[in-house]
Amino acid sequence: MASRKSRQVEVRMVAEYLKTTYSSYMFITKQPLGQVPDQLAAEVGMKRAMGMTRPFRPEVDAVVIMPGAMVLVEAKVWNIVNGLAKLPVYKALVPITPELKQYSQLPVAMELVVGWTNPNLETMARALDVRVRVFCPDWLGLIVEDMHKYWTKDYQEARKERLELREYYGIE
Amino acid sequence: MPLGNWVMLEQGIPERMHFSAFFKGTRDIIDSVTGRVVPKNVAEFDVDRLNGQPTNAKFSVLAEKLFAQLEPYTLDNTYKNYEFVVTRIGAGFTTSFSVQVIPLGK
User: For site-directed labelling of A54, which of A29, A170, B74, B88 has its Cα 20 to 30 A away?
Assistant: First the structure.
């Protein structure tokens, strides 16, 4: 039950990480990136155009605004490499993001927040100039542990039994 | 003219709030689809400043997606040290929320 994604694991993880690490600075979660088409902005106004295009623009988990830098933060429990690969692409969109225009003079740093790491991830991150931060509070540790056990025979059998019991008792 | 007792989020419109108190519990809510009254777990904040103006309103959070972003500040009552700009994105089951966290005095 603890590893169900519907518990907003990554949202909770990034919120706790930001509070723990950047509590003195302003930050924005789920910041859309990239340009808003000029033609649309001219037709309906920039504010409305931002709202209309929001579902189609990529979103970074968080942007931290510090006096000397802007930090793009992506947090991942599952699909860690996807998170890593997204960050340099997101960084390319920062200069054309209207919401971040006022901070455009700041250098952009990239951080991948993960519950666990490994040497290959660190090597890839160095190559992309991304900092890897391991953030694993107790509640997340249990989820990471379950994730690592997922493919073991014992875990699969216990999971099968749990799902059968849930079906038997009609638990969603 | 609305009484302004509750802060309602409109899609794409950011609301900047300072919270002075927090409550988590059960409230009877009218389900918008079935019309039935159902008990729901809610998080409620007293809002004493809204978009820079003093107010005496409440902000009610039903969505786990939003509460997950605010919860760390409720555990130690540090929400009083920040202003939160909350923007609702999308509608229905695809709704998500952007939260800007601003330390007081910044």
Answer: B74
